[in-house]
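Meet my pick.
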Amino acid sequence: MELKWLEDFLSLAETRSFSRSAEDRNVTQPAFSRRIRALEVWLGAVLIDRSSYPIVLTPEGRKFRERAEEIVGLMKLSRAEFREADRPSNLPIVAITALHTLCITFLPRWLTDLRVRIGPVATRVLPENFHLCVQALVESGYDFFLTFHHPEVPNPLDSERYPHRVVGRDSLAAVTSPAMAAEGADRLPLLQYSRGSFLGLLAAIAQAQEGAPPTYLAHTNESSMAEALKFMAIEGHGVAWLPRSLVAPEIAAGRLAVVAPELPMDIRLYRSAARTRPLLDRVWAAAGDEAHAGSA
């Protein structure tokens, strides 16, 4: 039995959809289904009633869900404790989970500014998709969560339990190769994020804006990685809606062209109000210097 089987099962109990959970867990649906079945075989019990949609847990599944939550929670707590004990320096440590793109474009500079303001600090960073970042903040003991935000995309975090500060700004830009931009076609091929991905939801809002180019679906990137879509756009495969911070060098160098009005986004830092210690309060106060606070 593997820990990831339990995490798969808990995701499925939450979403009640094999396809949605497979996407959240970054595996194909057949592979995800095999892992759920392997867990059932190992336990000797059927956990999922597959005859209905959305799926429901069997009585055994409901009972096992409580056990699985306890096991996964204890394992993650133990991992966090051992990592804390084994860190190579005596510096205080901050655990941050962040969207993949922000780990590349925003986080390094932000950490540099943070260390100027509060002094030396060690960091542990988990790059993930939006849903797993939320899970890491809520369930896995991470101190902060760094994400994009737009008011039309709902955030599942309760504002009282998980306050935020706005620490930066970005925008979603529709980019393609200069050659494709110059063609002037009636419709352009669209490079799309996987269904339900966070940047995919933002891209759908941006594509619906006035002035966005008419498109047709040409490619879906199943990993939901903006970096992969960037290189597809550079190679002339279509239009991709990407954070400007990720493609600014390519735009400046003429390797990508912007073909639509951009969608403004905030960059938000979330924390758990239940996790308090002096170091976290210092980080929170320093983060508030950059922009206005959200829920405080």
Summary: The first strand starts at residue 48 and ends at 49. Residues 27 and 49 are 21 Å apart (CA to CA). The radius of gyration is 21 Å.
